[in-house]
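Fig. S4 source data, part A: sequence.
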Amino acid sequence: MAYFRWWRRTGAAYWAALAGVWLIPQSQFGSGSINDGAAFLVAVGRRIKARRVAEKLSQSDLSRLVGLPQSQFSDIERGKRSLRVDQLRAIAIMLQVSMAYLLGE
C-alpha cells in the first residue's frame, strides 16, 4: 500500500518520462535516419505554431497554459525538442484540435 501512495504522489507522468515513454516511438523514424525523425518533429511543430497563430495566442501564453517553460515550447515549435504524449494532449486541448491533427494524420 505504501508503494501505491508513493507512486501516486510522485506522478505517473514523471515515471513514464523517466522510463523513456515518449511520443515518437523508434518505428516512426522510418529508416532509422536522424533526418526522418527531425522532419517529423519539424512538421508537428509547424502545425502547432500555425494553430497557435490562428487562435491568436502568443507562445508565452500557450506555454503557460500547457505548463511548459517558454524556451521548451519554442524548441517544440522549431522541431528541436521531442514531445511526450501528455504534453501533446495538453497542447491539443488548448488549441482545440485532436492529437491526430497535430501529428498529421
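Fig. S4 source data, part B ends here. The chain has one domain: 2-103.
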